[in-house]
């Protein structure tokens, strides 16, 4: 139950972070947004170090660095994807892809689910699709946006799997290493592409808040994965489009279709079943 609650908190934080990051990327080049979000996220993790502790064994450094590279790719691809829009189509695409790989890794590593889990897991994946299946929007995403959404989902999945592989006694070490690497990669990419970034100023507060929320989401996911099954935690975390879609509805007036409401109800049933599992 603790792992489930942590995963739900992670899902909510990811959904809010993605919305703010995608909205911020509409105001300036996506790298300008990530240049603020990634360091803000690192600052939060450094503040958590004295509270939660951290160790930096070779395995922690290796898996943390790998998660950082994946995180940098996820930041850029996801924010650019959501900036292109529509959010209520592309968000579930990335979420579904980001859930499938960790679920597969968890099952291959020997995790076993009871009857309730075997029903709840595919039901949760179905809910991810239904929550923002795109019926509520008047325009379809472009091929480029869909490809970027698939790439963002794969990058998110790799980030989560790499974090899960880090030693359980490493505290927030893998998060600190990962965010330091992702910040360095982002700043290097921005330096190489400086002339292509344009002159538009990023939404500083919005971008920084997105980074802070992303850091909170990563922490909650890591704690959830350490106390529960990766397969269950990953699919609950992947329900984050619910937060993104609801914010898109309230702020951007993107319509919510009846199927999306059914998806929210399906998610609630799936979470209940996984809690029983």
Secondary-structure topology with pairs:
Blueprint: H1 2-24, H2 30-52, H3 58-84, H4 87-108, H5 115-131, H6 143-165, H7 173-192, H8 204-227, H9 230-237, H10 241-252, H11 258-276
Helix pairs in contact: 1-3, 1-8, 1-9, 1-10, 2-3, 2-7, 2-8, 3-4, 3-6, 3-7, 4-5, 4-6, 4-9, 4-10, 5-9, 5-11, 8-9
What is this structure, in a nutshell?
The chain is built from eleven helices and no strands.
Q: What is the beta-strand fraction?
A: under 5%
Strands, total number:
0
Inertia-based shape: globular
Quaternary state reads: single chain
Tally the helices: what do you get? Answer: 11
Q: What structural class do you assign from the helix and strand content?
A: mainly alpha
Rg computed from alpha carbons, rounded to a whole number of angstroms: 18 Å
The helix fraction, in percent, is: over 70%
Pick out the low-confidence regions: none
- Biggest sheet descriptor: none
Mean pLDDT: 81
Terminal residue distance: 9 Å
Order of helices and strands: HHHHHHHHHHH
Could you characterize what this model shows?
The protein is an all-alpha fold and 277 residues long. Helices cover 79% and strands 0% of the residues. It has eleven helices and no strands. It has helices at residues 2-24, 30-52, 58-84, 87-108, 115-131, 143-165, 173-192, 204-227, 230-237, 241-252, 258-276. α1 (2-24) packs across α3 and α2 packs across α8. The protein is globular and about 55 Å long. The termini are close together.
């Amino acid at each position: 139950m603790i792992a489930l609650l942590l995963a739900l908190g992670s899902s909510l934080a990811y959904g809010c972070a993605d919305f703010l990051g995608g909205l911020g990327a509409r105001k300036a080049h996506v790298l300008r947004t990530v240049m603020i979000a990634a360091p803000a996220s690192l600052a939060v993790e450094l503040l958590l170090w004295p509270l939660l502790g951290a160790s930096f064994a070779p395995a922690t450094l290796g898996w943390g660095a790998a998660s950082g590279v994946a995180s940098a790719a996820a930041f850029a691809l996801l924010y650019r994807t959501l900036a292109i829009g529509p959010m209520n189509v592309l968000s579930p695409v990335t979420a579904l892809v980001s859930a499938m790989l960790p679920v597969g890794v968890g099952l291959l590593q020997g995790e076993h689910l009871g009857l309730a889990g075997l029903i709840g897991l595919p039901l949760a994946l179905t809910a991810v699709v239904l929550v923002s299946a795109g019926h509520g929007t008047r325009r379809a995403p472009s091929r480029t946006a869909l490809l970027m959404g698939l790439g963002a989902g794969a990058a998110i999945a790799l980030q989560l799997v790499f974090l899960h592989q880090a030693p359980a006694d490493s505290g927030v070490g893998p998060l600190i290493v990962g965010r330091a690497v992702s910040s360095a990669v982002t700043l290097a990419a921005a330096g190489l592409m400086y002339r292509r970034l344009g002159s538009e100023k990023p939404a500083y507060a919005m971008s920084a808040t997105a980074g802070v929320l992303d850091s909170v989401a990563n922490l909650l996911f890591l704690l959830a994965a350490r106390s529960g099954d990766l397969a269950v935690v990953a699919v609950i975390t992947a329900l984050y489009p619910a937060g993104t879609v609801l914010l898109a509805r309230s702020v951007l007036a993107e319509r919510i279709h009846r199927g999306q409401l059914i998806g929210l109800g399906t998610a609630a049933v799936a979470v209940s079943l996984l809690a029983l599992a």
